[in-house]
């Protein structure tokens, strides 16, 4: 039951992701992106990983895409802009699609060899996750936080140059 | 709980919430009237109690048309997005021992996620209306959400740490053994309350729809049932924040003599009254003050609170 539900959510997520890439109006693309992220969260819930699901909603659909919105809301949405975007989409999909096939075909083939990889629903213990993140993976967490700090300082630098002029 | 019982309970909660939101609009207007030394609505029914029914009928009857040049898909999607997430958020709230639609082990995180999603309603409504006032309101909403959501989560982590669980029922149970968490976590409670006002977009943190400078912000172009859905979302968000505050800091359903759901309702009602009182008492801050307070004062305080709570919790652990 929950396996079927997860597969259904995954199919919805995939459809939303395709729509997100192919919409000519960028805010519509963002709506489909949020729908895809939420379907993925529903997928996590269906598989019993409610921590991952809740964090997916909170951080991706809630916070990260809200940052995108800042930039995107001021983007040109006139008829010419839509036309330009359609032109680009008409020819521009081939190389990304080739890249996806290159990655996806071996991945799906590998999953097929390994048998159905659906996990039975189980409770998640945030304690053991925390112990993993701050134990064996502590170095990776620190490296990621260093990267974020660098990005933050970069953004600050770029923003300051504009204000000084 | 069986599937039928879950379905029945969720329908009951849904209907109760919509009625409660309607009654809340009447109670707020009466209380605001009292606080501002005027009468408030007092014509329809006893003490004007049926005013919210009359308003609902009026809103259903009104024409609801998107403005010329609007992005109709986004314009229509936004009101639904305002009401649906907060209604879903109530799915994990425990009204009494065992009386919860979905007893999720990540209940508190789920509610936070649902509150964060309401920003989409404002942003899409603002963008879809093709209106400059609405657009400014939408941008303000997005920035405010990022600023206040960050310490909303951190301010309640102290309670989660002390209870050792994100589940609503466990957090209430943890307070039954000792004191209410508002006594152990006073700083966390104050910060959570401030963030909760911002998350529910209530005065004094409602700059995305402040009438004096933005007409009605992201809601400017809405009328009829679309407008009503935005309103429903806002009032249910207040109820949700109040329910979360009750669960985290006021011992949830615990109380003497009266049955558990009644205590829960009384506490939520008291918090809602506090929301209305603050609306009558406080002016809006300037927008830069609002965002500056969140990042420069509240976020560091929430981190400090979590750090100290962590020390104590680790010190107590065997």
From TrEMBL, chain A:
It is found in: Cell membrane. It is a multi-pass membrane protein. InterPro entries: NADH_UbQ/plastoQ_OxRdtase_su6 (IPR001457), Nuo/plastoQ_OxRdtase_6_NuoJ (IPR042106). GO terms for cellular component: plasma membrane. Its EC number is 7.1.1.-. GO terms for molecular function: NADH dehydrogenase (ubiquinone) activity; quinone binding. It comes from the Bacteria. Keywords: Cell membrane, Membrane, NAD, Quinone, Transmembrane, Transmembrane helix. The keyword Cell cycle does not apply. The chain crosses the membrane at residues 30-50, 57-75, 95-119, 131-155. It catalyses: a quinone + NADH + 5 H(+)(in) = a quinol + NAD(+) + 4 H(+)(out). NDH-1 shuttles electrons from NADH, via FMN and iron-sulfur (Fe-S) centers, to quinones in the respiratory chain. Couples the redox reaction to proton translocation (for every two electrons transferred, four hydrogen ions are translocated across the cytoplasmic membrane), and thus conserves the redox energy in a proton gradient. Belongs to the complex I subunit 6 family. This is NADH-quinone oxidoreductase subunit J. It comes from Cereibacter ovatus. The lineage of its organism: Bacteria, Pseudomonadati, Pseudomonadota, Alphaproteobacteria, Rhodobacterales.
TrEMBL record, chain B:
Its EC number is 7.1.1.-. One of its GO terms (cellular component) is plasma membrane. GO terms for molecular function: NADH dehydrogenase activity; oxidoreductase activity, acting on NAD(P)H, quinone or similar compound as acceptor; quinone binding. The chain crosses the membrane at residues 73-96, 108-127, 147-166, 178-200, 227-250, 262-281, 293-314. One of its GO terms (biological process) is aerobic respiration. Keywords: Cell membrane, Membrane, NAD, Quinone, Translocase, Transmembrane, Transmembrane helix, Ubiquinone. InterPro entries: NADH_UbQ_OxRdtase_su1/FPO (IPR001694). It catalyses: a quinone + NADH + 5 H(+)(in) = a quinol + NAD(+) + 4 H(+)(out). It is found in: Cell membrane; Membrane. HAMAP family: NDH1_NuoH. NDH-1 shuttles electrons from NADH, via FMN and iron-sulfur (Fe-S) centers, to quinones in the respiratory chain. The immediate electron acceptor for the enzyme in this species is believed to be ubiquinone. Couples the redox reaction to proton translocation (for every two electrons transferred, four hydrogen ions are translocated across the cytoplasmic membrane), and thus conserves the redox energy in a proton gradient. This subunit may bind ubiquinone. Belongs to the complex I subunit 1 family. This is NADH-quinone oxidoreductase subunit H. It comes from Cereibacter ovatus.
């Amino acid at each position: 039951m929950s396996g079927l539900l997860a597969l259904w959510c995954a199919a919805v997520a995939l459809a939303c992701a395709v729509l997100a890439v192919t919409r000519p109006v960028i805010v519509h693309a963002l709506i489909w992106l949020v729908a895809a992220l939420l379907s993925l969260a529903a997928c996590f819930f269906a598989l019993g990983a409610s921590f991952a699901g809740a964090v997916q909603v909170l951080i991706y659909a809630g916070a990260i895409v809200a940052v995108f919105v800042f930039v995107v809301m001021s983007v040109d949405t006139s008829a010419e802009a839509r036309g330009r975007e359609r032109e680009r989409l008409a020819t521009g999909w081939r190389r990304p699609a080739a890249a996806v096939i290159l990655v996806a075909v071996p991945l799906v083939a590998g999953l097929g060899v390994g048998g159905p990889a659906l996990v039975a629903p189980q409770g998640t213990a945030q304690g053991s996750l925390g112990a993993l993140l701050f134990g064996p993976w502590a170095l990776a967490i620190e490296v990621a936080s260093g990267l974020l700090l660098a990005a933050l300082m970069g953004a600050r630098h770029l923003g300051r140059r504009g204000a000084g002029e | 709980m069986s599937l039928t019982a879950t379905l029945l309970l969720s329908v009951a909660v849904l209907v109760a919430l919509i009625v409660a939101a309607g009654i809340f609009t009447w109670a707020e207007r009466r209380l605001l009237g009292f606080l501002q030394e005027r009468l408030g609505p007092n014509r329809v029914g006893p003490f004007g109690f049926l005013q919210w029914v009359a308003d609902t009928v009026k809103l259903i009857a009104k024409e609801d048309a998107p403005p010329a040049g609007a992005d109709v898909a986004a314009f229509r999607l936004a009101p639904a997005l305002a009401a649906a997430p907060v209604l879903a958020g109530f799915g994990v709230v425990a009204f009494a021992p065992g009386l919860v639609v979905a007893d999720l082990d990540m209940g508190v995180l789920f509610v936070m996620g649902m509150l964060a999603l309401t920003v989409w309603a404002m942003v899409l409504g603002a963008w879809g209306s093709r209106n400059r006032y609405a657009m400014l309101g939408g941008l303000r909403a997005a920035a405010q959400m990022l600023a206040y959501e960050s310490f909303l989560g951190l301010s309640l982590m102290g309670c989660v740490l002390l209870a050792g669980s994100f589940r609503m029922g466990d957090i209430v149970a943890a307070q039954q053994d000792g004191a209410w968490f508002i006594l152990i976590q006073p700083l966390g409670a104050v910060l959570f309350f401030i963030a909760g006002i911002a998350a529910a977009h209530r005065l004094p943190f409602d700059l995305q729809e402040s009438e004096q400078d933005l007409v009605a912000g992201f809601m400017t172009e809405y009328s009829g049932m679309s407008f009503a859905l935005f309103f429903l979302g806002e009032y249910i968000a207040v109820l949700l924040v109040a329910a979360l505050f009750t669960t985290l800091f006021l011992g949830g359903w615990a109380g003497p003599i009266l049955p558990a759901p009644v205590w829960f309702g009384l506490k939520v009602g008291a918090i809602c009254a506090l929301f209305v009182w603050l609306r009558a008492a406080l002016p809006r801050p300037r927008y830069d003050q609002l965002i500056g307070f969140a990042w420069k004062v509240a976020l560091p305080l929430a981190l400090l609170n979590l750090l100290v709570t962590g020390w104590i919790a680790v010190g107590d652990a065997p």
